[in-house]
Specification:
The chain is an alpha/beta fold and 441 residues long. It has helices spanning 14-21, 36-39, 49-58, 76-90, 101-108, 112-130, 146-155, 161-168, 176-191, 212-224, 252-265, 290-303, 343-351, 361-367, 375-384, 388-399, 405-430, 434-437; strands at residues 24-25, 43-47, 63-68, 94-99, 137-141, 203-208, 228-235, 239-246, 272-274, 279-282, 313-317. It binds tryptophan and iron/sulfur cluster.
Length: 441
């Protein structure tokens, strides 16, 4: 099994995706006040989220990053990502959003101008409408940011074609622009940790599982380009220690001495050098010290001009299905509610959505509805009913047969109408803020 980020169909067998690709379960208890999407299991998986959760709990700096490949108007599926970004922003995250115009050029045949036009018209104003704040946030274009493109070729030294074949299924007919697109995304995700962009810190990338290949590649390259490796170690004489190992063969002694000084500065004493093993041992250290030690070393690496990237985290959310069941697609207007839809259009689509209702009213009163298979209910869960109590009541009323689909759709239509009206008002009031957030380089 392979995940193809550019395929039109994606697997929704989330348990299998977790098992086969080593995605970890997402535990909402790791953050102080988990969002509704977290509590409801919409966000079902993660890689490396412990670093981000730790930063949130400790009130330390962290970042959130996402990217959009513009295609058709922004719909509720895209909103799902932005809701998460805004949630992190409210917790104090700095926000970076990339317009993936290079990727769209390489994989969708879209001109850079068209990508920009789409982003500016269909996406950016809605980000502000949904509540993104300009302060501490920026949006850039892949094609315009030199540091992103520089990183993509520099970090590319640590990945070979066999790996690209294995991850993406690339082969002899893959064109080079497409082959390079994943590396540009690696550049997107890691450049926010460059010294001029705030330095090494935890960064979370909320994505659909289709993006996991890019996440794996990015985390591998972040790791492969480090100078130090930190891990628990058993030493013959010292017993259990935390080991700091130099991975290069150049200037090993200088790196070890610098690491010693940096770790003493953050409070570790009695450090033991083992130069022949290219190691520095922390006798009082354990696995729990890894994040703090690794961060200090990453900062040291950056100061010395090396690539001290902390492994970026990702969370994975479930995909909303299309309103009629099947895939939600940008190119099929009837399959999704777009933020461009008028309140009436949106309500009409809601009214035509596939439900989990029974053949007859009598049967539904007797057996109850199937909320699990219902697109109306899914829209409640993902977007329309943030209140847990209210959602539980709708669920109960459906499952018990107290409420029939006609009544339920009436509620959903009212809610989507109100939501659309609100978004359009906020868009009108806030779209002038786009210029504060867009960077030209
Ligand atoms: N590949 C993403 C998509 O297809 C867009 C993207 C580019 C992205 N760079 C990113 C997403 C960085 C997350 C992080 O939609
Ligand atoms: Fe869906 Fe509502 Fe019908 Fe239940 S009652 S199946 S939630 S539309």
């Amino acid at each position: 099994m392979r995940i193809d980020p550019w395929a039109s169909q994606q697997s929704t067998d989330y348990a299998r995706l977790r098992n086969e690709f080593g995605i970890q379960a997402f535990d909402p208890e790791t953050v102080p006040e988990p969002s509704a999407l977290m509590q409801r299991g919409v966000i079902f998986g993660q890689r490396g989220f412990d670093l981000v959760a730790r930063a949130i709990r400790r009130g330390e700096p962290f970042g959130v990053l996402t990217g959009l490949m513009p295609s058709g108007p922004m719909h509720l599926g895209h909103k799902l990502v932005m809701d998460q970004v805004i949630w992190y922003q409210r917790l104090g995250a700095d926000v970076t959003i990339t317009v993936a115009d290079v990727e769209a050029w390489a994989t969708r045949n879209m001109s850079l101008e068209k990508a920009r036009e789409y982003a500016e018209r269909y996406y950016l104003p809605y980000y502000l409408a949904l509540g993104l704040e300009p302060k501490g946030a920026q949006i850039y274009f892949q094609s315009k940011r030199a540091s992103v493109k520089d990183l993509s070729w520099k970090l590319g030294r640590k990945v070979n074609w066999s790996t690209m074949e294995a991850i993406y299924g690339f082969g002899g007919t893959t064109n080079m622009a497409h082959a390079v697109a994943p590396l540009v995304q690696v550049g997107d995700i890691l450049h926010v940790q460059l010294p001029e962009n705030g330095g090494p810190r935890p960064v979370v990338v909320p994505v659909g599982v289709d993006q996991d290949p890019h996440i794996r590649l990015t985390r591998d390259l972040a790791q492969a380009n480090r100078t130090f490796n930190v891990q628990p170690h058993k030493d013959d004489k010292l017993g259990d220690v935390l080991g700091v190992f130099v991975k290069t063969d150049e200037k090993v002694e200088a790196w070890l001495a610098a690491a010693k000084a940096a770790l003493e500065k953050i409070g570790y004493s009695d450090l033991k050098l083992n130069a022949p093993y290219k190691a520095l041992y922390i006798p009082s250290g354990s696995a729990a010290d890894v994040p703090a030690v690794d961060e200090a070393l990453a900062q040291l690496e950056m100061r010395k001009g090396a690539f001290g990237f902390l492994p970026p985290a990702a969370t994975y959310h479930r995909f909303m299905q299309g309103l009629q069941g099947g895939k939600m697609s940008s190119s099929k207007p009837e399959s999704h509610i777009s933020l461009e839809d008028s309140p009436d259009e949106a309500a009409k689509k809601m009214g035509a959505a596939m439900t989990g209702g029974r053949e007859t009213a009598e049967e539904q009163r007797r057996l109850g509805g199937r909320a699990e298979e219902c697109m109306v209910y899914e829209t409640y869960v993902y977007h329309l009913v943030p209140e847990q109590k209210e959602l539980a009541k709708l669920y109960e009323d459906c499952k018990s047969g107290r409420m029939l689909c006609g009544e339920c759709k009436g509620i959903a239509k009212e809610k989507i109408r109100a939501f659309m009206k609100d978004v359009h008002e906020k868009k009108a009031a806030r779209e002038h803020l786009v210029k504060e957030i867009v960077r030209e380089a």
